[in-house]
Design brief:
The protein is α+β, with helices and mostly antiparallel strands and 222 residues long. It folds into two domains: 101 residues, no CATH class; 104 residues, Thiol Ester Dehydrase, Chain A. The protein is built from four helices and nine strands. Strands 4-5-7-8-9-6 form a six-stranded antiparallel beta sheet, with helices on one face. A three-stranded mixed beta sheet has the order 1-2-3, with no helix packed on it. The structure holds octanoyl-coenzyme A. It is a peripheral membrane protein. This is Acyl-coenzyme A thioesterase THEM4. It comes from Actinomadura monticuli. Its EC number is 3.1.2.2.
């Protein structure tokens, strides 16, 4: 297992925000490839959780997968993916825990910015279970944190989560869900955001968050 700290990544400027002048067309093409790979790995996670095969077959499958991991390790970044951007204002954060195209742990969340904030439709499977048949509370908080953070930043400024408060009104069933977020008010560098998760019968989780533009960060970058 790879180390969780990446001093060698900082040394070569990988991670963080990285200017990368790969043309957008090439970024789009590569994104489709890594998203396809991550989709198959996501299937693998679901299939692993739900497998009923016998122990001997699972040992053989584990060996096959270990060989695949070795093939992927033949070419690796020295650290996490960070956020990259080019001169055409195309940015990509393929490792992001919630919407990273290359991250099989991400559901992934496809966030749509609209007039009132952001929304996203997501379909959560067995990998996101907490109580039986229900979404893990930490997963709900993670998804809300992300969509509320995107709402606060409005794609034009950097904001970090200061405080996130969640109220779990009832269990959130695995399956199709709708997330929504909107800005309630702003005070100086603080952006107050409301968010929710709903199933077909209505809201299951409500959240309030304070998102803060760090001291020294540009108020808006256009
Ligand atoms: C587009 C991508 C979307 C991604 C969405 C995902 C969002 C995330 O998960 S971000 C990761 C989780 N969050 C973090 O790691 C943040 C860690 N904390 C920090 O970096 C800093 O503490 C930070 C930026 C929140 C505040 O730092 P700093 O700018 O120095 O704040 P500071 O000057 O002390 O305070 C500014 C104001 O914010 C308030 N404040 C500070 N911290 C908090 C807090 N945690 N909660 C609420 N209010 C706070 C202060 O009271 C102050 O208010 P006022 O102006 O009224 O006096």
């Amino acid at each position: 297992m790879m180390s969780r700290r990446f001093p060698e990544a900082a040394a070569v400027g990988v991670g963080g925000f990285v200017r990368d002048d790969t043309p957008t067309e090439q970024v789009d093409r590569r994104e489709a490839v890594v998203a396809s790979l991550a989709g198959t790995v996501r299937d693998l996670v679901d299939a692993t959780i739900r497998t009923t095969l016998g122990d001997a077959e699972l040992h053989r499958i584990r060996d096959d997968l270990a060989a695949v991991v070795d093939r992927l390790r033949a070419g690796q970044l020295p650290g996490p993916a960070g956020i990259r951007y080019n001169s055409e204002r195309r940015s990509w954060n393929w490792g992001n825990a919630v919407m990273g195209a290359a991250n099989a742990l991400a559901p992934p969340l496809d966030v749509v910015h609209d007039a009132s904030g952001c929304h996203a439709d997501v379909d959560l499977g067995a990998a996101y279970e907490g109580p039986p048949g229900l979404v893990h509370g930490g997963v709900s908080a993670m998804l809300l944190d992300h969509i509320m953070g995107e709402t606060a930043s409005a794609m034009r400024r950097t904001t970090f989560t200061g405080t996130l408060t969640t109220r779990y009104r009832r269990g959130t069933p695995l399956g199709p869900l709708r997330l929504e977020a909107s800005i309630v008010r702003e005070e100086g560098r603080k952006v107050f955001v409301a968010g929710s998760i709903a199933d077909a019968d209505g809201v299951t989780v409500e959240a309030e968050g304070v998102f803060i533009q760090p001291a020294g960060a540009p108020a808006a970058d256009g």
